[in-house]
Amino acid sequence: MSYPPKPFTHIPESQLFELITQYPLATILSCSSTETLGHVCQVPMLFDRDTGTFIGHIAANNPLVRQENNTIKLLFNGPNAYLSPNHCNNDILPSWLYANVEVTGKLELITEHSEQVATMIQLTNHFEQGFDTPWQMNKLNDKMINAMFKQIRFLRITASQYKGNFKLSQNKPMRIREQAIASLQDEGKTSIAQLMLKSLTHK
Length: 203
Description:
- Helix 5 runs antiparallel to helix 6 (about 190-200).
- The protein is built from six helices and seven strands; from the N terminus they run ααββββββααβαα.
- The protein is an alpha+beta fold.
- Strand 1 and strand 2 form a beta hairpin.
- Strands 2-1-5-6-7-4-3 form a seven-stranded antiparallel β-sheet.
- The protein has helices at about 5-10, 15-20, 115-125, 140-150, 175-185, 190-200, and strands spanning about 25-30, 40-45, 45-50, 55-60, 70-85, 95-110, 150-165.
- Pfam families: FMN_bind_2.
- This is Transcriptional regulator.
């Protein structure tokens, strides 16, 4: 018997990419010679679907800096929710719904100054979307930019594999899944309910 069960892992690539884009805070795992379980950190990453690359920045003293040219893993967690028997007329046992994407990729440091500036502009322009007055890099002079760049390091990660694990009751009868979706929506848990709804049409 495979784990995770196949119904939870047969997810269209487009849905994996959508989750990565909507929930960009990645938990990054890398090997370490000094720590048995390796190093873990959280970094918001901007994903380019066309090239399969991620960009971001971290503190200069983050141990991840020493992982250049190594293979690392990024875990993107989507919405999650407790699923009670009450959601499904007591036809199921208590469970938990969730969706995540695991990405394997190779890390490189962006060291060219002009590329660092372009990367910072790209990151801020993206994450500042939605603000009435978005912050922009042109508010900083060269001295301020140089001082900031001494404190951070820029990353590019090229993905080699994507693995999704969407545990959304795909192994349950359709009537139970529909009941759960309706009940979760009534509770205001719309993100997980919408993911479950998409899973109804995916074979």
